[in-house]
TrEMBL record:
Its biological purpose: Part of the ABC transporter complex HmuTUV involved in hemin import. Responsible for energy coupling to the transport system.
Organism: Sphingomonas rustica
Molecular functions per Gene Ontology: ATP binding
ABC transporter domain: residues covered: 4-238
Entry-linked InterPro entries: AAA+_ATPase, ABC_transporter-like_ATP-bd, ABC_transporter-like_CS, P-loop_NTPase
UniProt KW keywords: ATP-binding, Nucleotide-binding, Translocase, Transport
Keyword field contains Translocase: yes
Name the UniProt record assigns to this protein: ABC transporter ATP-binding protein
SUPFAM superfamilies (alphabetical): P-loop containing nucleoside triphosphate hydrolases
Length: 257
């Protein structure tokens, strides 16, 4: 299992303060959604937890300073699915998914039987086994998104941070991905997903962080975070909110008046 704690986190990119004084902790067996409007700092928060951007404050993984952890060790602890990746090399899907095993391999090492089994498991879970022999650069956007998710799953890390994992996916595969992320959390993993779809966030996440202008403005259960006042203040919208039944939904009605 793995845990993350951030304290007084700040990120400045160029002359803009993207994150300011963010404090939060993330525990195993929990699917946490990070939501908020465009430019709020959601993706930067995800990257900061992995020491991929310069930060102030503290980020600790299993009570260790993330900035001092060897990169391969961190990658074995927390798999990362960044948003909007561009593929440049004409690798087969199976080989691309296999790159997820790199944190477990030493220099000049070859993929062992255990690695091959992990790759197969990841492709099954992401529903890309039928694409095994396809060239990844020739895939559609949705197919590519699922393959890159499989690459992250192939790490078999106890933690997963996924930045906009539903982008480019059709509704059916959006459901499949959210089912998968929830299953990962139910199995004991720490799972964090940056999401734009508030209905999906309400239906699947155990907890939400609502981020706006670089700060966390709400943190808690979806029913508490996705309150009408918060949606007006952060998104500037009025919405019909039904979070009481088996199928929570949020329908945007228009700009708040």
């Amino acid at each position: 299992m793995v845990s993350i704690r951030i304290e007084g986190l700040g990120v400045t990119l160029g002359r803009r303060a993207v994150l300011r004084d963010v404090t939060a902790s993330f525990a195993p067996a929990t699917l946490t959604g990070i939501v908020g409007p465009n430019g709020a700092g959601k993706s930067t928060l995800a990257r900061a937890m992995l020491a991929l951007v310069p930060t102030t404050g503290r980020v600790r993984v299993d009570d260790r300073d993330v900035a001092t952890m060897p990169r391969a060790e961190l990658a074995r602890r927390i798999a990362y699915l960044p948003q909007g990746q561009t593929l440049h090399w004409p690798l087969s899907v199976e080989r691309l998914v296999g790159l997820g095993r790199l944190p477990h391999l030493g220099p000049m090492s070859r993929v062992a039987e255990g690695d091959a089994a992990a790759i197969q498991r990841a492709m099954v879970r992401a529903d890309v086994t039928a694409l095994r022999d396809r060239i990844a650069t020739e895939l559609s956007g949705g197919e590519r998104a699922r393959v890159l998710l499989a690459r992250s799953l192939a790490v078999e890390a106890p933690g997963l941070i996924a930045d906009e994992p539903l982008a480019s996916l059709d509704p059916g595969h959006q459901i499949d991905v959210m089912d998968l992320l929830r299953a990962e959390a139910r199995g004991g993993a720490l799972v964090i997903a940056v999401l734009h779809d508030l209905t999906m966030a309400a239906r699947y996440c155990d907890r939400l962080l609502l981020v706006d202008r670089g700060t966390v403005v709400a943190d808690g259960a979806p029913a508490d975070v996705l309150a009408p006042a918060n949606l007006r203040a952060v998104y500037g919208i009025d919405a019909r909110i039904d979070l009481d039944g088996d199928w929570p939904s949020i329908v945007t009605l228009g700009r708040a008046r």
